[in-house]
Specification:
Number of strands: 12
Radius of gyration: 20 Å
Low-confidence stretches: 1-5, 12-18
Number of helices: 12
Bound molecules: zinc ion
Pfam family, one: PALP
Helix content: 25-40%
Mean pLDDT: 92
Cofactor: pyridoxal 5'-phosphate
Protein name: Pyridoxal-5'-phosphate-dependent protein beta subunit
Largest sheet: 6 strands, mixed
Order of helices and strands: HEEEEHEHEHEHEHHEHEHHEHHE
Number of domains: 3
Domain Tryptophan synthase beta chain-like PALP: 76-353
Strand content: 15-25%
Structural class: alpha/beta
Shape: globular
Keywords: Lyase, Pyridoxal phosphate
CATH architecture of the largest domain: 3-Layer(aba) Sandwich
Strand order of the largest sheet: 3-4-12-9-10-11
Distance between the termini: 73 Å
Oligomer: single chain
Length: 359
């Protein structure tokens, strides 16, 4: 009987461990169902622990394959990832704005939407008036999922047209950015938040894989990233960490976070200076809007440097990039503006969003 009980306990443990693929970043509790958006115990965000070795196999399905993403059997692919990296002088530019919907967010949309399809979810909500909304709308269209994208009432511009063009429903919400998020969360549709759903952040680790692969499996000294809610930063950090843990690289590259004068909560925390968010973000870098990012504590641990740029510097950098043939959105030009103030050798600048979205 005793033996049987033990066997049962072992069996249940095994069953549970095979089910628990996501854990709270704060308290370590396992995620009990896909409907637990934040940890029910402590309110923390969930993440997907990487407990397998990175596989250097560089076939045509790299980097989105079942070896790198064992929790996805079938990818709803639009040809994301594998974006070019080019060299101009001493700078390496990773052209991630060449993803299918015109931003790096496709790297997370493909994993989140593919995962939700496998879980039988067919209607989702998301709050974003920008690239995340566009990416989720595009992959939902590809999957046959009905997407409801919640945006601030005041939002306007090409990205909204892009979201609607994919057939997603655009829902305008009065109030603050937090009010928009609440409306999406309480909509009755499955809340496919690009900030909270770990499958979204997890998809972005492919960007780190590609940077290292493009450098013959070596790291650059520095990687410059624009930082808002932290999905790009934490995703890329996780990718490098995975390569380090797997012995592919022997140290982490230094990550330089770039923020705007108006939206600089991470730089303020990192440099221990005071920061008062504005009532309204009016910077031309309109994709960088997270004045109080939920993931801030984790973001601070991932960076080596934080650089703040202003609108004039961004505009100058944007013009220079365009004259090099690189038409990106203002929020993406921030990394070049930062590089000009914090010049380094062997740096990769990730250009995240297409300039065609903001013309
Ligand atoms: Zn927790």
């Amino acid at each position: 009987m005793h033996y049987r009980t033990n066997k049962l306990v072992i069996y249940l443990d095994l069953l549970f461990s095979s089910m628990v693929k996501e854990v709270c970043m704060r308290c370590g509790k396992g995620r009990e169902s896909i409907y637990e958006i934040k940890c029910s115990k402590c309110g923390g965000p969930f993440e997907i622990p990487i407990d397998f070795e990175f596989d250097k196999y560089n076939g045509k399905d790299f980097p989105y394959n079942e070896k790198n993403f064992p929790y996805i059997k079938h990818f709803i692919s639009l040809g994301e990832g594998r974006t070019p990296m080019i060299k101009r002088g001493k700078i390496l530019f990773k052209l991630d704005f060449l993803n299918p919907s015109g931003s790096y967010k496709d790297r997370g949309a493909v994993t989140l939407v593919s995962y939700l399809m496998e879980k039988g979810i067919r209607r989702i909500s998301e709050d974003s008036s920008g690239n995340a909304g566009s990416a989720i709308a595009a992959y939902s269209a590809a999957a046959g999922i009905e997407a409801y994208i919640f945006v601030p009432e005041t939002a306007k511009g090409g990205k909204l047209k892009q979201i609607e063009s994919y057939g997603a429903h655009l829902i305008r919400v009065k109030g603050s950015r937090e009010d928009v998020a609440k409306a999406a969360e309480n909509s009755g549709y499955y809340y496919a938040s690009h900030v909270l759903q770990p499958q979204f952040r997890d998809g972005i680790r492919t960007l780190a894989y590609e940077i290292v692969r493009d450098l013959d499996w070596k790291i650059p000294n520095y990687v410059f990233l624009p930082v808002s809610a932290g999905t790009l930063l934490l995703g890329v950090y996780k990718g490098f960490k995975h390569l380090l843990d797997s012995g592919v690289i022997s140290e982490m590259p230094k990550i330089v976070a770039v923020q705007t004068e108006q939206v600089m909560p991470l730089c303020a925390k990192f440099k221990n200076i005071s920061y008062m968010p504005p009532d309204k973000v009016t910077s031309i870098a309109d994709a960088l809007v997270s004045t109080r990012p939920f993931l801030l504590d984790y973001m601070q641990k991932a960076i080596s440097e934080c650089v703040v740029v202003n609108d004039n510097e961004i505009l100058e950098a944007w013009k220079e990039l365009a004259k090099m043939g690189l038409l990106v959105e203002y929020s993406s030009a921030t990394v070049f503006a930062a590089y000009k103030k914090f010049s380094v050798d062997n740096g990769v600048l990730v250009l995240t969003g297409s300039g065609l979205k903001v013309l």
